[in-house]
């Protein structure tokens, strides 16, 4: 039987199979109700390096280590709006 690290979680949505290879950090902002603006941002880079994590645990470790920087970054991208949530979510790739 393969170990947990060798298995890729798979999920079907609207007839497509999605495979979770990596994890990513997403910042969700607290925006006014009915705001036409996007309310979240995917953190793709840090100091010029692409960010992607092989496990949720590694992603969370990086997130907590850099939580203050992530909050400042999120607010700076949304006209100083407050951060509602920061978390690690699967980076979905169509199969």
Decide which structural class fits the backbone: alpha+beta
How would you describe the oligomerization state of the chains in this entry?
A: single chain
Rg (C-alpha, Å): 15 Å
Structural shape: globular
What number of domains? 1
Helix count?
2
Let me know the average pLDDT. Answer: 79
Query: In what range is the share of β-strand residues?
Result: 35-45%
Gap between N and C termini, in Å? 23 Å
How would you characterize the largest beta sheet?
Answer: 4 strands, antiparallel
Indicate the percent of residues in helices: 10-25%
Number of strands: 6
Flag low-confidence runs.
1-15
H-E string: EEEEEHHE
Walkthrough of the structure:
The protein has 95 residues and is an alpha+beta fold. It has one domain (4-94). It is 22% helix and 40% strand. It has helices at 56-65, 67-77, and strands at 10-13, 16-29, 40-43, 45-46, 49-50, 83-94. A hairpin with a 2-residue loop joins strand 4 and strand 5. It is globular and about 35 Å long. 8% of the residues are buried. Residues 1-15 have low confidence and may be disordered.
Features:
95 residues, alpha+beta, four-stranded antiparallel β-sheet, 2 helices, 6 strands, disordered N terminus
Concise overview:
This protein is α+β, with helices and mostly antiparallel strands.
Topology:
Layout: E1 10-13, E2 16-29, E3 40-43, E4 45-46, E5 49-50, H1 56-65, H2 67-77, E6 83-94
Antiparallel strand pairs: 1-2, 2-3, 2-6, 4-5
């Amino acid at each position: 039987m393969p170990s947990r690290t060798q298995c890729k979680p798979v999920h079907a949505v609207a007839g497509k199979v999605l495979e979770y290879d990596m994890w990513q950090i997403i910042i969700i902002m607290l925006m006014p109700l009915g705001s036409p603006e996007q309310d979240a941002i995917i953190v793709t880079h840090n100091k010029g390096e692409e960010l992607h994590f092989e496990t949720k645990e590694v992603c969370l470790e990086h997130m907590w280590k850099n939580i203050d920087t992530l909050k400042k970054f999120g607010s700076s991208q949304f006209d100083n709006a407050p951060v509602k949530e920061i978390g690690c979510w699967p980076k979905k790739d169509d199969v």
